[in-house]
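Case study 2.
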Amino acid sequence: MMFIAFCLLDLCRMESTRIGQWLNLLVCAMVLLISEASYVPITFVQNAVTKGAVCLDGSPPAYHFDKGFGSGINSWVVAFEGGGWCNNVTTCLSRKTHRLGSSKQMAKQIAFSGILSNMRQFNPDFYNWNRVKVRYCDGSSFTGDVEAVNPTTKLHFRGARIFAAVMEDLLAKGMKNAKNAIISGCSAGGLTSVLHCDRFRSLLPRGARVKCLSDAGYFINARDVSGAQHIEQFFTQVVVTHGSAKNLPQSCTSRLSPGLCFFPQYLVSQITTPIFFVNAAYDSWQIKNILAPGVADPQGHWHSCKLDINNCSPNQLDLMQGFRTEFLRALTVVGNSSSKGMFIDSCYAHCQTEMQETWLRTDSPILAKTTIARAVADWFYERRPFHQIDCPYPCNPTCHNRVFEPQDDHPGGKNVTTKGTPDASSATKTSFPKLSNKAQWIELLCIERAISGLLLSLVILVILLMPMFSS
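Prediction:
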C-alpha cells in the first residue's frame, strides 16, 4: 500500500498529459502485480557463527520471515524445513555442496503457501500471523552438537545450536511477546517439531497459547520387506554421528537407547505441550525408505510401485496395508486427549500442510467433511478436538496421491534415506493426478493474484479519474 501511495503522489505532482498519467499508472500496476507474489527473502543469522551455530559447511544458518499484520501481529508460526538426514561422514559430506548443508547454496527467496500463505482465502486462520520458514542445513533435525571439527572434512555437526540461535533471533524480533505460537515442519522438519516441542514451549511467555504441529514427521520403527531393521540402524547412526543424544528429550533417553528416541512413538506420550499430527497412513517417503528401501530391494521389484501406487501389485499392496496397520499401532500412544490431535488420511503422500493443493483448496483431502486447514485451526483454537483416521486405501476419493518420476527412485541397492527427502518447497519432480500438473497450479495462483492486483489498480484509476468527471 505504501508503494501505491508513492505512485499516487508522483501522479499528482505530474504536469503532463493524460497519456503520461496512464503510462505511469500502468507502471504502478505492473510493479504492484510483481509485489503480489508471496516470495519471502532469506535472512542469515550472521551472529550465530561466533557461537558455533553453523551449517555442515560452517556457513551461517538462515530463515525466511514474513511479518504478521493486523490481529496476527503477536501470533507466530515457525516451520522447519525438511530434507532427510545424513548418517555418517560420507553422506554428510555430500550435503556440503548444496542447500541441505550450506546456506551459501540456498535460494535467496522462496514462496510461502499453505499454512505459510499470507492470503486469507488460502489460509484463513493463520494468514496474518508472523510466518517463518527455518532452512535445514545440519542433517540431524536440529539435534546435533559436536564441538570438534575434523580438519580434513571440516564438517560441523551443530544442529541444536542452530535451533537455539534461530530462536534467539526470532525472540528478539518480537516472538518474546507472542500470544499464539505454533512450531511446525514437514518430514525431517516435522520430526523437529516433535523433538523440540516442549523446548519451544519453554521459550515463550507462560500465558501464550503454544502448540506443535508435525507434518509427515511420524516416522515409525518398522522392518523393511527383507525383514531387516534398516531405519532403526540408520537413526542410531544419525544420533551417533551428530552427537544428538544429549539434545533428545530426557523423558525418552532415560528409558531407551538414544537412537530409538528419534521415533515419535517412543516419546510422544511424554510430550506435555499440545501437539497435532498430519500424516498419510501410506506416507510415500516411509514406503520408499522404511518399508522398501533400495538396500532391501536390490532387483528393483518395488521401483514402479514406489513411483506410483497405481502400479503396485496385489502382493505389494498387501504389504503396504500391513505397513498401515503398523503405523496405526505406533500411533495409539498419542491417545485421545483433546490436547493432542491427528489427521491421518489414506493418501500416498508426504507433507501436506505447506502445499496449497493439500492444505486448503476446493479439492483438498477431506476427513469427516473437514480439510487439513480447518482441522488444525479448530484444534489450535480449541473450537473442537480432532482425531480422525481414514479408512484403508483406496477409499478416499479426495486424496492427492503423489506420482514420482523415475529419477526420484534409486533401485539397485542405493539407499534413498541417506540422500534426504524432498519437502514441500523442493518437491519439484512430483505430480498430483487430480491437478493437470504443478505448473498449471502455479499459473492459476498467479492469475488469481493478478486479478486481485488489477482490481486494486482499477480502484486507484477510478480515484484518479473522479476529478475529471466532477469538473
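The first strand starts at residue 39 and ends at 44.
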